[in-house]
Amino acid sequence: MVLWILLISMALFAVTFIALVNKPVLRYATSISFLVLAIICSISLMLNDSNHLGMKTQVYTETKDLVSITGKDSPLNLITYKSLGNGDEKIFIYRTADHPNKNCKTKIEYNVTIKVQRGSSETPQVEIKKKHYVYKNEFWRLMFGGLGLNKETYQYTYIFKLPKNWLVLDMKQLQAVKQQAQNDIKQQLQQQLPNAIKTEMEKELQKDPTMSDNQKKKLEQKITAEQKKKLIAELTKNTFSKLLPQLEKESL
Predict the structure, then answer these.
(1) Which of 25-34, 90-99, 156-165 is predicted with the least confidence, judged by mean pLDDT?
(2) Which residues sit opposite 112 in a β-bridge?
(3) In angstroms, rounded to a whole number, what is the distance separating the alpha carbons of residues 252 and 247?
(4) What is the DSSP letter of 108?
């Protein structure tokens, strides 16, 4: 409404200043009144835009449970971050229990504060506090409504509450660790898988020595798939367990 009052008062200022030229006392009294009203409206609009006149801060808080960025079946529990610019600013990347396969990122387009609290909770969580401006009452809503400033967000605070066994790694560190682990697992898999298949095949053939060649072929395919899956899980767990001391040193 302030904008409409401004436009109307400016129009009335022009009309009265021109139309009442033969009545100088009334002319100046009314035109100056409308001019002052227009100035007050202009100042209030500027104050609303710069200092949020007529508005107050409202805080919206939500808490979400976290799952590891590497997946629910991963032996590692962690969130990651990516450094920006000179490294002082960081984007944290995490996953929540309600969307375990989707990466979430902390905001960068607002005033953002990020805190990591270790050992403060047995359940990994992120508390997100969002501050935005709302009108103090219906009067101010009526005055400035329609300007697009209601519920304008200006600050985010992320508090990551992590158990002691959780890590906070740079994304580059995580990628390097994954590559190292994949190479180690692949090498060990090539060494151990043939013997594992042979052992299981011998056990099954002892149970049924009369198997046909076709049955043996199908059995070998089945055992290969099973043993490969089993070995990958074991090797992954063992490999990351060996890397854990190094990762704990590199973690934030």
Answers:
(1) 25-34
(2) 156
(3) 10
(4) S
In order of 151, 205, 206, 207, 223, the CA distances from 215 in angstroms are 69, 10, 14, 13, 12
Q: How does DSSP classify residue 161?
A: E
Domain boundaries defined on the chain: 2-50, 55-165, 171-250
For 200-221, the DSSP string reads HHHHHHHH-TT--HHHHHHHHH
pLDDT in tens, 131-188: 988 888 877 777 777 666 666 788 899 999 999 888 888 888 878 777 877 788 788 8
Residue carrying structure tokens 């151990």 = 192
pTM of the shown model: 0.68
Cβ-Cβ contacts under 8 Å for 86 (sequence gap 6 or more) = none
- First and final C-alpha spacing in the chain: 51
